[in-house]
Write the structure tokens for this entry.
Amino acid sequence: MITRRRLEYELVKHVVGPATLRFDTLRGELKRRKKKPRPDSPFGPPLEAAHKLKELMSLHYLAGRYADGAVPVAWVTSGFPVEFLRPFGFHAVYPENHAALCSAQKQVPELASAAEAEGYATDLCSYARCDLGSAFTGKTPVGRLPKPDLLCCCTNICQTLLYWYRALATHFNVPLVLIDPPFVYGKAKPHHHQYILDQMEELLAEAARVSRKQVSLAELVEVMHLAREGTALWGECLDASRNRPAPWTGFDGFVHIGPIVALRGTKECNAYYRLLRDELHDRVKKGIGGIKNERHRLMWDNLPIWYGLRELSTLLAERGFNFVCTSYTNAWAEGGALVDPSQPMASMARAYSHVLLNQDLKNRLSVLERLARTYEVEGAVLHSDRSCKPYSVGQIDLKDRLQKALGIRVLLFEADHADPRAYAKEPAENRLTAFLESFA
Amino acid sequence: MGIDVGSTTTKGVLLGDDGALLECVLEPTAPRIDEQSREVVARLKQKGGELPVGATGYGRKRVPTARAVTEITCHAKGAFFRLKRQGLLVDIGGQDTKVIHLGAQGDVQDFSMNDKCAAGTGRFLEVILGRLNVPLAEVSAYAARAPRVVSISSTCTVFAESEVVSLIAEGEPVEGIVKGLHASLASRVRAQAGTLSPSAEIFMSGGVALNQAMVAALAQAMGRAITVLPEPQLIGALGAALSVAG
Ligand code: SF4
């Protein structure tokens, strides 16, 4: 029997939500048509797909408000094999993605302060502080986050996540499943993969228990196909920036990453990236750039600075600079190719231990070198992220090695991915501007 | 013409066709940057007529009708214009300290700036010398008289200030503390220079370069002689003028 809560959820997700959001988009479209575009804007025309992105992500959060009590809800980390949860019918919530949204909406200081008031140190990842603060206060820019039935943590990006999810597990009093890929020095060993595989089996058992549903291997393989296709499509979108001018900016890439993180393994996700890819290819054909006057091409390393995206992108675009590739957005395109639906579990174990932050510096350097060469950049900005240590440790060495290996200019740029209180705006922009001037 | 609105002093220069400085202005930075800079530019215009204005320094964006260029670029341009050779340029400013690796063409190869706080900047010296009641004009004499260096281990300006207070209470001579202070600042600059071209010749620009004690301390820390640029305070303004000159 379908419960009332379930009915509400399905209605919002499939009928009311899409209709309302479609209406919002049309209204926005009309308003935009009336408003003349700023002739002095350094950016190319805005991406049409951006409306669809907004609809898609808003629907995800809107449906989330009605998810708990209707379907099983899992809170997952960005590097978790979320595909596995889909056939069980989970609604997945990404606290990192949510924290990025809070940051872009300038709500992190308030939420992080709430966590700090509970004793969490300001040195802790600002995503964690924001999310815990949101959990403690119930405040969120998306109206409401559904309470989790299961917490899913994969430490392939950092160990902080484990402590953070343990705190969530205590707060919500729900079970936590852990996938803990060993750190890869050089190449991962077969027993490492076996260790991950064993944990994946445990995850499937726990997911079945919480959702009270059994799924077949065929269903898992089907969703893996979707996830693989989604990451490949995302890769094609990024790849479009190999053209000159790049049809979009690296900052656009940060924003459009939403679906591949939060909706990976769904048809909607893939449909969205097909749309985006086609638009980008069309722009390439027509010679339309993400910025009007692309004079220099750069690479970005580490997380974005969510609260400063607009200011920083404008500062760059005005001077003819574009980030044509970023190690962060690329990370979601890399793993997909390793997934082999003919060996579903084993290849997933490989793919999920192979992510950028789970590998030693030599591997990271080779990824950066490959990106720099493929996208033909003249310089790189390594964002030294105040509260994301795993991504930032080693960047001084990376800077030296990149400079030496490729002869490009490299800047270490200090900021924080989500907390503007750890960002000295004037000195930081001064440094970035001086760096850009050095290309003259 | 160029104007350098620093956190402590505002400098303006009028550059002749032959590269000579036709007029210089140097005054403490006032709270109303736009008004002050307008007056400085007006004074330069009286001598030189209508010319493009380049502005640098922390207040550069508030100089009316000027093209804003960062201090890194301007110090590099100014220094290379003066010396015509590559090297490592150190500028200890009021708010930040810059180390710039100047390439053979005068281009900025790489640079580093100090962290977000006042440690390792001119402000560090200013605060603590103020606490010691040592007038800026006499700093070099104090350091020269020091019987020995009293080491200051705190790098944070606020901690260093309280460390100095206890050193005075322990009866350490002011001269030794002054010398120790310079050594401490110099070692921070050395750390900041890090891997930037370790064997290059070192130049110094900025007002702090007039402080002999600082030049000596830096030379000792870096293990090399230091070339102080002529009129070091005006290098930023000179670079700003050069960056808009045809
Ligand atoms: S510390 Fe870094 S890798 Fe870990 S959750 Fe925070 S942002 Fe992500």
Q: What stands out?
A: The longest helix of chain A spans residues 4-34. Chain A has 18 helices and eight strands. The two ends of chain A are 69 Å apart (CA to CA). Residues A 125, 127, 157-158, 160-161, 303, 357, 388, 390-391, 417 surround iron/sulfur cluster (CB under 6 Å).
